[in-house]
Amino acid sequence: MTDSLESTICLFDVDGTLTPSRNPATQEMLQYLNELKGKVALAWVSGSDLVKISDQLDGRENTISLFKYCFAENGLVAFKEGNLISKQDIVKHMGDKNVKEFVNFCLKYIADIDIPKKRGTFIELRTGLINLCPVGRNCSQEEREEFSDFDMEHKVREKFVEVLKKEFAHMKLRFVIGGQISIDVFPEGWDKTFCLNILEKEGVKTIHFFGDRAYPGGNDYEAYMDDRTIGHKVKNPDETIQLLKQLFP
Ligand SMILES: [Mg+2]
User: Where do the catalytic residues lie (predicted)?
Assistant: First the structure.
């Protein structure tokens, strides 16, 4: 590795950037990354967990040997050379008092929403987010679609988010209406830029970031636009390889 590349890293989104969406990486990609890691350090960042991503990148051992850093769940769970170096979750971050206040409010609000059907699991606490679901996550596929149509007409989730934004402005949360039935709630900055804080602390000076959803609203947009990265927008894994060959001949 030359001096100038010593503190440089290539940071990749996985789905659509290194692999076809939700599919394994091609042999060509794996071979190329293996060559590239001799020139520059590699890292990936994904909303998924290490197990899922390792499956896509030819197993855990291979993932660890190819990538110096693995940032699962956007970096809330961070690995360096295969070792866990930091772990953060939303309860730790918000504190139990705030979580309780927020959950209590949402339970009352959901109880009062007038929608045709309600099932079970209206609130789900995950590592990095709180998932709110007015119809309940236990709904059937048919009920899911029914809610989705109802929501398009009556803006149930949009109205819910407006209320939450006002009520919890002081907690600095972000609300994303995702998929057909739910709202994801997470602290500001808990997108893919979360892992940039870790790389900064690690003394990495130059970060090339590659993502396929680097447009407003896409989950690579924040990291792509961040001042700490050199952002690269790609359409698919083939384009990622082409671009890398130009950058690191
Ligand atoms: Mg992607």
Answer: 13 (nucleophile), 15 (proton donor/acceptor)
Tell me the CA–centroid distance for residue 23 and ligand 1, in Å: 12
Which residues have a Cβ under 8 Å from the Cβ of 7 and sit 6 or more positions away? 203, 204, 205, 206
How much is the pTM?
A: 0.83
8 is in an annotated binding site: no
> How many residues in total does the chain contain?
249
What stretch(es) of the chain map to CATH 3.40.50.1000?
3-76+191-247
CA of 235 to the centre of ligand 1 (A): 9
213 is an annotated ligand-binding site residue: no
As annotated, the active-site residues are 13, 15
Q: In whole angstroms, give the CA distance from residue 102 to residue 204.
A: 37
**What are the 10-residue block averages of pLDDT along the chain, 249 residues in total?**
74 96 93 96 93 93 95 95 94 96 98 96 92 95 95 96 97 88 92 95 96 92 97 98 96
Give CATH 3.30.1240.20 domain extents, the chain.
91-187
State how far the Cα of 118 lies from the Cα of 237, in Å rounded to an integer.
41
CATH number, domain 3-76+191-247: 3.40.50.1000
Residue indicated by tokens 């600095």: 172
3-state SS assignment for residue 78? strand
CATH code assigned to 91-187 = 3.30.1240.20
